[in-house]
Amino acid sequence: MYAFGFQFILMTLRAQLSGVIQERFNPFRKTSLIAWVVLAAQILHVWATGSSLMDEPTMYLGLDLSTGVALVHFIFFAARELMLILEINLLTMT
């Protein structure tokens, strides 16, 4: 649930940012594609052999952590770049 929630938030933020800076929105990013490939491989392996390809709790934890880190990375660097472009301070008092 966390991985999909983080991916939804990440795509929503990217869509909003691309609208603000008038850039073409690309929903197929590395983080989403990696998660989809891992889940598809797991589903296909279970369907074909009847056994799990990898430990599912570990797989979901890895997806949660990778998408969470990608979300924090995007928020931090997008805010930093906008601060530099607009020449404003963020979360500071002068």
Model description:
This protein is mainly alpha-helical and about 90 residues long. Helix 1 (about 1-20) packs parallel to helix 3 and helix 2 (about 30-50) runs antiparallel to helix 3. The protein has one domain. It has helices at about 1-20, 30-50, 55-85.
Keywords:
single chain; 94 residues; mainly alpha
Chain-wise SSE layout:
Layout: H1 2-20, H2 30-49, H3 56-86
Helix pairs in contact: 1-3, 2-3
Based on Cα principal axes, name the global outline. Answer: elongated
Distinct helical segment count: 3
Question: What integer is the average pLDDT?
Answer: 89
What letter string, H or E per element, gives the SSE order? HHH
Beta-strand proportion: under 5%
Please tell me how large the radius of gyration is: 17 Å
Q: What are the segments in which pLDDT stays under 50 over at least 5 consecutive residues? A: none
Helix content: over 70%
Number of domains: 1
Structural class: mainly alpha
Number of strands: 0
Largest sheet: none
Briefly summarize what is shown:
The chain is an all-alpha fold. It has three helices and no strands.
